[in-house]
Amino acid sequence: MHSDNEITPEMVRDSKIYQQWGLTDTEYQLIVDTLDRLPNYTETGIFSGMWSEHVSYKKSKPILRHFWSTNERVLQGPGEGAGILDIGDNQAVVFKAESHNHPSFVEPYEGAATGVGGILRDIFSMGAQPIAVLDSLRFGELDNAHTHHIVDGVIAGIAGYGNAIGIPTVGGEIGFDPVYAGNPLVNVMAVGLMDQKGMQVGQAKGVGNSIIYVGAKTGRDGINGASFASAEFSTEHESDRSAVQVGDPFLEKLVMDATLQAVRDHSDIIVGIQDMGAAGLLSSSSEMASKAGMGIDLDLNQVPQRETAMTPYELMLSESQERMLFVVKKGEEQVILDLFKKANLDAVIIGRVTDDGRYRLRFNDQVVADVPVDFLTHAPKQDLPMVAPQRLAILKADQFVPDVTDLKQTVLDLVGQPTIASKSDLFRHFDSQVRADTVIKPGGDATLVRIRGTKKALAMTTDVNARYLYLNPKVGAKMAVAEAARNIVATGATPIGITDGLNFGSPDNPEVYYELAQAVDGINELAKQLNTPIISGNVSLYNETDGQAIYPTPMIGMVGLLTDVSKATRIGFQNAGDSIYIIGETSASFNGTEIQKMQTGTIDGQLFEFNDHDEITNQKLVLAAIEQSLLASVHDLSEGGLIVGLLESAFAGHLSFNVVTDMTSEFLFAETPSRFIVSVAPQNRDAFEKLVGESAQKIGEVSDEDQMTIQSSDQLLQLSRQETQTIYQESISWRLKA
Amino acid sequence: MYLAKIYVTYKPSILDPQGEVIKSALTRLDYTGISQVSQGKYFEVKLDARDVEAATAEVKSFTDSLLINQNTETYRFDLSIVNEDEATL
Amino acid sequence: MYLAKIYVTYKPSILDPQGEVIKSALTRLDYTGISQVSQGKYFEVKLDARDVEAATAEVKSFTDSLLINQNTETYRFDLSIVNEDEATL
Amino acid sequence: MKAAVIRFPGSNCDFDMLYALQDFGIDAEILSADNNDLNDFDAVFLPGGFAYGDYLRTGAIAKFSPIMAAVIQAANDGKLVVGVCNGFQILTEAGLLPGQLQVNKVPGFICEDVELLIENPNTAFTNAYETESIMIPIAHGEGNYYADDATLAQLEDNHQIVFRYAQNPNGSAHDIAGIMNERGNVFGMMPHPERAVDAVTGNVDGQPFFKSILSEIIAGD
Ligand SMILES: Nc1ncnc2c1ncn2[C@@H]1O[C@H](COP(=O)(O)OP(=O)(O)O)[C@@H](O)[C@H]1O
Ligand SMILES: [Mg+2]
């Protein structure tokens, strides 16, 4: 890397080095015109960082603007580190998701680990105590060593960071499909809890106030990580990468505890807090100034450095982990410096808030950058063309018909499919119980975490079935929201809000851009009806390898509130003799299902229908039944349909079932949305039937034998619980060891 | 039979949190003259091979592909000839 | 300035689960001639000391008390003289 | 009667332990490992977590914290000293309990409920148990207990093995999950009883553990 003195503004212009950093000629010209001079090397570098898609959202913002993000609970919508919702008693829940897809492909362990570290900083920089982490993962099929390596690394990385910092990883989801082989998805979501009076924002207000740098020293880690995440991946250039970021959960634990203590004890002198994420010091400092309508003046020689001879460009763009910025009232800095010093952490004043709206950097007594803050933080928006993908136009309307000639074998094969099989062999590596508040552990529908000292609990889940979106981006996105909500409802909690992780291919492809717009539309439509505003989220574009895009994969992270934790319901059957009911109609819904994928090797055809009204009605019904304590168990139906739902309730409860249905047996595999299976104790049967009327159908009984039976209108299915459960339980580890 | 002793360390620009923590522990324990600590890995691998060249190639190959993480680590190794059941250290 | 290179290995009687896992991974990757793998730790410590004797004594002292667990581990080390800012590997 | 829960930098089960003790009416507070005096306390708890990041070796750096001299003094004075998970690892590193916790036999962190057999019901940590087997969560990557044969024989002969795993999850010698010193006042275990005290979380098998300790501290008062 050259120092600034060596590369003149003219050289930047002539060599077009800005193109390598991701700036277009038009953008560069705009900078020249606005500054009314040529930008120097450092200035060009900071524009390229701030104007990358990853930081500026210049391509996705026109679409994201449409997200619905206000209701009576919203205290903070999108735009800050994380969104905040009122949960009563002057408490608030804070949550957000983040993607670390590209870093995790290059370096699975550290990529995933630093993803967890980053999302936790987003939470505690708002002044909230993180209480839970969830993930949403996509990998290629488990049939090759490279995918095994990525899976092992990602799981170990999430575990390595989350376990050590002591925040439980309580839930998530994992899917497998060849489209993710060269571009795995690693999304992590964090949830925090706070007193409303402790709310912090990332703003740099007040002329003369100090900018304090806290935490790890700056090295050359992930230089240009933001532009890197905004560029497509090509296997040829796989080795062309920046220094890998390494996480230090021990240091972050110290930073987290000290930050929360500062918020508790010194909120009167703290003006703003911002974590350093993508584009590090640059984006955190400039955004704080821009949001406050102020300017900022930084002395880069003050920045704690791990390596020698770092240039201003490197210092600003470094993505070293575990770093935070505080804005503190002038004259009161020592209190904060002392607090961090006591925790053995670096804390240094590196600059001041100014009122001239300039972003000014000094290095070795020279001004090395001086540009308007607002210009820097507002990349020129791009309205991109969109067009419906060709493939959607030619999808056939007919639904796939599963082959059920050997019904038993079909079921055994299905429960062994990695997407269906239990993920416990993977998530057992996560400490899901530290903090001792986990009421419903991973393995059910949503996870439930109690709020100590109250009767309340928070339910949380992440969901999306990208195959549905591949066949219909809008309806598929609705179904993702619906499934998340069903999972929340199955615990007894009411859904209250959404964070998302929008993982898509290149937005420069009009078909991909269309998928993105449609997905956002779908999410929005159902979110409004569920009264679950989208309060935060993340966009990850350019998820392509050698020109092949992933399925559109908008991860939905949802949080629900249960006001009386003693009412919590679980998926497992409770007692032999309880009646089993199915809530919701089953129809021929087979295109895009797991059974289609398993039997044909692909997914095809028009997606089956989704009815908003049925979804909401059925959810309300389940909540009402739980409210009246009528249900022994509740499980929503999703991938794999009724058969998988029944089996999971049986496995979780160590009990079996005898079911009789007038459907033919292929309907056992239908993935018709908006359905639940519930079990009801004999003494509650009458009350339950009165409540639900025609909306639920009794289909059988819970039994304590090993044998599970389903008599459909055409076949009798008999399965041994032990044998079936072994396949369900062990399939993933068998495949990983193979 | 060959014995490969393989020393793995972080590349210079990679953060080594362990080394930092160990260094500060040593300083607290009054080992004041210590200016740098880095922790790496050390492998001893016994292998059969046709000759030294083959053994060298094999060690390079599996170290690159399995023992180290090429994104963050680098290594060197020594190779010696040993008897079947010789103790290593 | 001295540079101590410290090699820590398990005592022979101690089971080394990581070594076992690596060995079976190597075998699966068709490195068939491998008969034993052990994974240990490797430290590089830069320290100031009056002379070689003092440096040796200091390295022994902090390795015994901090770097290894005497129940299960053993070590050897080399000491060399280096310039302040010499690269280590 | 007062208990201290020691917080090392990187401890993360300190509050879990504090709340569990307080739930059983034990007057407890969190004390930073920077302190060097435990005279005001009758019992000392070393909680789980990753002290100093568990860098180098679990518990290796923590054993040199200022508080540890006082912990050793408290043990010598016959006060109760209890280490759970990382606390157990620190107690072995500090030499207050024999042996060492190594990387799990199949390397990797595991979090799940395991069945424990109460091997010695007549201890300050188990006397309130009325069953022989309980379920308690584990959450560790280095819980594989190692000690040489002579030490193991001694632990067996003196009934110092307090808990054993019904199905060994980590390779521990003699299926050891928890041990105490000869005098019976210093105790360490890998599983987390403080995560199993509240009915709402679905498991209360840790309650008798704390009841035992409570009665022991009261008796000693
Ligand atoms: N990566 C993961 N991390 C933690 N928990 C997971 C993970 N993957 C799946 N789980 C847990 O396994 C259970 C079932 O997951 P999933 O099959 O996705 O449920 P659903 O179909 O109800 O959305 C849930 O409790 C979920 O939290
Ligand atoms: Mg579900």
UniProtKB/TrEMBL annotation, chains B, C:
Keywords: ATP-binding, Cytoplasm, Ligase, Nucleotide-binding, Purine biosynthesis. It is found in: Cytoplasm. Its EC number is 6.3.5.3. It catalyses: N(2)-formyl-N(1)-(5-phospho-beta-D-ribosyl)glycinamide + L-glutamine + ATP + H2O = 2-formamido-N(1)-(5-O-phospho-beta-D-ribosyl)acetamidine + L-glutamate + ADP + phosphate + H(+). It comes from the Bacteria. GO terms for cellular component: cytoplasm. Part of the phosphoribosylformylglycinamidine synthase complex involved in the purines biosynthetic pathway. Catalyzes the ATP-dependent conversion of formylglycinamide ribonucleotide (FGAR) and glutamine to yield formylglycinamidine ribonucleotide (FGAM) and glutamate. The FGAM synthase complex is composed of three subunits. PurQ produces an ammonia molecule by converting glutamine to glutamate. PurL transfers the ammonia molecule to FGAR to form FGAM in an ATP-dependent manner. Belongs to the PurS family. Part of the FGAM synthase complex composed of 1 PurL, 1 PurQ and 2 PurS subunits. This is Phosphoribosylformylglycinamidine synthase subunit PurS. It comes from Leuconostoc falkenbergense. The gene is purS.
Automatic annotation (TrEMBL), chain D:
Its EC number is 6.3.5.3, 3.5.1.2. One of its GO terms (cellular component) is cytoplasm. Pathway: Purine metabolism; IMP biosynthesis via de novo pathway; 5-amino-1-(5-phospho-D-ribosyl)imidazole from N(2)-formyl-N(1)-(5-phospho-D-ribosyl)glycinamide: step 1/2. One of its GO terms (biological process) is 'de novo' IMP biosynthetic process. It comes from the Bacteria. It is found in: Cytoplasm. One of its GO terms (molecular function) is ATP binding. It catalyses: L-glutamine + H2O = L-glutamate + NH4(+); N(2)-formyl-N(1)-(5-phospho-beta-D-ribosyl)glycinamide + L-glutamine + ATP + H2O = 2-formamido-N(1)-(5-O-phospho-beta-D-ribosyl)acetamidine + L-glutamate + ADP + phosphate + H(+). HAMAP family: PurQ (MF_00421). Part of the FGAM synthase complex composed of 1 PurL, 1 PurQ and 2 PurS subunits. Part of the phosphoribosylformylglycinamidine synthase complex involved in the purines biosynthetic pathway. Catalyzes the ATP-dependent conversion of formylglycinamide ribonucleotide (FGAR) and glutamine to yield formylglycinamidine ribonucleotide (FGAM) and glutamate. The FGAM synthase complex is composed of three subunits. PurQ produces an ammonia molecule by converting glutamine to glutamate. PurL transfers the ammonia molecule to FGAR to form FGAM in an ATP-dependent manner. This is Phosphoribosylformylglycinamidine synthase subunit PurQ. It comes from Leuconostoc pseudomesenteroides. The gene is purQ.
